Each structure stands twice: as C-alpha cells, then as structure tokens.
Amino acid sequence: MKTAVAYTRVSTAEQGRSGLGLEAQRAAIEAFAAREQITISAWFSECQSGKRVSDTLAERPQLRAALEASQEAGAPVLVSKLDRLSRDVHFISGLMAHKVPFLVAELGADVDPFMLHLFAALAEKERALISQRTKAALAALKARGVKLGPKRANTSAAHEATRLRWAAHRARIAASLDTETRSYA
Fold it and tell me: For residues 143-176, b (16+ Cβ closer than 10 Å) or e, as one string?
C-alpha cells in the first residue's frame, strides 16, 4: 500500500479555532486516501496565511516539517486543494522543479504538470481577487463613515482601569528607584 504525508492549512487563527476548515480538509484527504488506497503516515497542520509567506518555509514550520517527513518516508505530501499548499505559482513550480512529490486530492492522482501550473496560476489569481474584494469592502465601509480598526472601550470604567494600571506601574518604578538609592547609601 502507498503512503503519504498529509498537510492541512487555514489562513487565520479564527479559522483555526473553529476547526471547520481543517476538518473539511482532513475529510477530503481521508476520502481521497481511501479511494486511492493510500495510508497517511503523518499529519501536519497550521494556521498561517499563505499570502505573505507563500514562498518561504521559514514562516510555515509545519509545511517544512511535512516536506521533511515526506522526503524521509519517500512519500508525497497530500493536500486537499492546491491553494492549501500555496497560492504562489513560483512556489508550486519550485516544488515541481525540485521533484518534491505532492498530491492534490481535489485534482486526482494523475494530474499532469501542465494542469498543476494552470491551477497554481488560478490560485494565485484568486488570492489577488480576494485582496481586491477586501480592499473594496473596507473602502466602502470607510466611505460610509465606519471607523476601521480594533474596537476600543470608551467607558469611564476602562479609563479608570487604565489609570490604576499606570499608577501601579509608577509605584513599582518608584519603589525600585528607592531600593537602588538605599543600596548606595
């Protein structure tokens, strides 16, 4: 029976906390592995955007670990969809050029390199479209007068809590300075 190393990824911590995207990817990988009679030898999963770091393994330690485990086992890395591996054509083609074996459940076991390049280009284009849609939505909100950014508590209780924290901080500094002054005397 063939083996593979499975890799799943979601882009945000919120998606990771919900677990739904990771579960869906796992289910797709398991179904594909069952159809193709592949045993999963190891699972690797991470919550990391592929947008800013799609071409660096330094920022995606679980992908790096999956690739290393794949090499050690002489088995391919198995992902549910190509964009879970990366949305960067250069990264995908680099894996292909370096003969790093990987399987994409959505595309099947016998997808040819030409099709992989096309799907990688589509994934990269989708990343750009997601970015454009997000920027347009934020601009529309801003035009309507919506304040963007993190919500801040603007209550007297919040102000009082901040004042007390600063007072305690100043007291600690004063106490440490007083202690240092006495040690010199």
Answer: eeeeeeeeeeeeeeeeeeeeeeeeeeeeeeeeee
Q: Percent helix, strand and coil across the chain, each rounded to 5?
A: 60, 15, 25
Tens of pLDDT, residues 16-50: 777 788 999 999 999 999 999 999 999 999 987 76
> Please, what's the b/e burial string for 50-66 (b: 16 or more CB within 10 A of its CB; e: otherwise)?
beebbeeeeebebbebb
Question: Considering the entire predicted model, what is its pTM?
Answer: 0.70
Domains and CATH numbers, the chain: 2-132 (3.40.50.1390)
Contact 68, 42 (CB under 8 A): no
Nearest in space to 29 (alpha carbons), one of 64, 75, 77, 62: 77
